[in-house]
Specification:
Shape: globular
Largest sheet: 4 strands, parallel
Number of domains: 1
Number of strands: 4
Structural class: alpha/beta
Order of helices and strands: HEHEHHEHHEH
CATH architecture: 3-Layer(aba) Sandwich
Radius of gyration: 14 Å
C-alpha cells in the first residue's frame, strides 16, 4: 500500500484537502501529511487500532506520529457510511481520495 500511495500522491503537485478511507495503520496519513499545508481527513472504523497507533512509542515513530498531527482530522466511523451520509458537502473540496478499505461483499463474507 505504501508504494501505491506514494505514486498516487507524487502525481499531484498541489494537494490541500486529502480524504483517506481506512488506513488505520497510519501510513496513508503519514504520506499525505508530507504535503505542505495539507489538511487530511482520515476515516477509520477501528477505534482500538487508532488509539494503539496514536499512543504506542514504536508505531508513533514508524508513522512519524501522523495520528497526533494537528493537520489531521480523525473520524472513527465506517467509511461507507461516511461517504454516503456525511461527506457529501465536503467531497467537492477534496483534492485526493485514498481508499484502503474492504468491499461491502467481502465485509459480509467475513461477518458470517
Amino acid at each position: 500500500m505504501m508504494i501505491i500511495l506514494s505514486v498516487k500522491l507524487c502525481g499531484s503537485r498541489h494537494l490541500n484537502r486529502i480524504l483517506i478511507l481506512g488506513g488505520g495503520d497510519g501510513y496513508p496519513a503519514m504520506y499525505a501529511l508530507r504535503y505542505e499545508n495539507a489538511h487530511v481527513t482520515n476515516v477509520e472504523i477501528d477505534e482500538t487500532l487508532v488509539k494503539f497507533i496514536k499512543t504506542n512509542k514504536y508505531t508513533k515513530k514508524l508513522t512519524n506520529n501522523a495520528f497526533n498531527n494537528p493537520m489531521l482530522k480523525m473520524i472513527n466511523e465506517d467509511a461507507y457510511d461516511y461517504t454516503e451520509n456525511e461527506a457529501i458537502g465536503e467531497m467537492k473540496n477534496i483534492s485526493q481520495i485514498l481508499g484502503k478499505i474492504q468491499s461491502q461483499a467481502n465485509r459480509k463474507k467475513l461477518m458470517f
